[in-house]
Amino acid sequence: MDTSYVWYVSYGSNLMEHRFLCYILGDQPEGSSQRERGCRNPAMPLKNGKTTLSYPLYFAGERTKWGNGGVAFIGHEKNERYKTYGRKYLITVEQFLDVTAQENSCDEIEADLEEVIQKGYIHFGKGWYSRMVYLGEEEGYPMVTFTCNLDLNEQQLNSPPIAYLTTIAKGLSQVGLTKEEAVTYFANTPGILGKMSEQEIEGIIGSLF
To answer: For residue 14, which of 90, 156, 171, 185 sits 20 to 30 Å off, Cα-Cα?
Structure first.
């Protein structure tokens, strides 16, 4: 594999291209209270596209830069019955580490990509997204993402703030999901499941499709 670039695979707010580019270029995404500082190398991703992850999506946490409510994570257990929608961005390793640092609200992180590939995952730091996960290979480049050190059954599930939910919904529309598919997807995701009806979800995101 060529490890000078990686596919960063997003499954939360970074599904929306403009929101992700705030991490690359430095900007404040709509709905967030925080301006991102951007990457040391502001080069645009070489490619991006839709993908899926065989890990369960869920929402957990309390208050974030998006307001009161949970944010997206994936569980630690891989299982082919799970289908979490993602968007992959082909960026440099340095950019991926800069994005990861911004997601964890720290200046920089130290992580060895080769170790991630060999072991399947590593833990670093104490941020919300401090578990780096190897997802396989595509077009000769490794696919990587990050999630929480805690697994799904260790978390306090919580439905997401409206601003966060709509940002993800915009990303889902950009990768080709229909309104009906997005509503069903959210309604069956832990953190939202049993707390918001499909009618409530459609009322929030319906106009985005």
So the answer is: 156
**79 vs 192: CA distance, rounded Å:** 21
With beta carbons less than 8 A apart as the criterion, state whether 182 and 172 touch. Answer: yes
Q: What is the dihedral of CA 123, 127, 132, 133, to 10 degrees?
A: 100
Q: 128: alpha, beta or left, given left = phi > 0 and alpha = psi -120 to 50?
A: alpha
pLDDT digits (tens, 9 = 90+) for 12-28: 999 999 999 999 999 99
pLDDT in tens, 25-40: 999 988 888 899 999 9
3-state secondary structure of 121: strand
Q: pLDDT at position 12, please?
A: 97
Q: Where do we find the tokens 């995101």?
A: 205
Domain 5-176 falls under CATH 3.10.490.10:
yes
Please give the Cα distance from 105 to 130 (Å, whole number). Answer: 11
Strand partners, 7: 90, 143
**What pLDDT score was predicted for residue 40?**
96
Give, in order, the Cα–Cα distances in Å from 68 to each of 84, 133, 201, 205: 23, 27, 17, 18
Predicted confidence band of residue 44 (pLDDT cuts 50, 70, 90): very high
Which neighbouring-strand residues pair with 8? 89, 144
**Measured distance CA(124)–CA(112) in Å, rounded:** 10
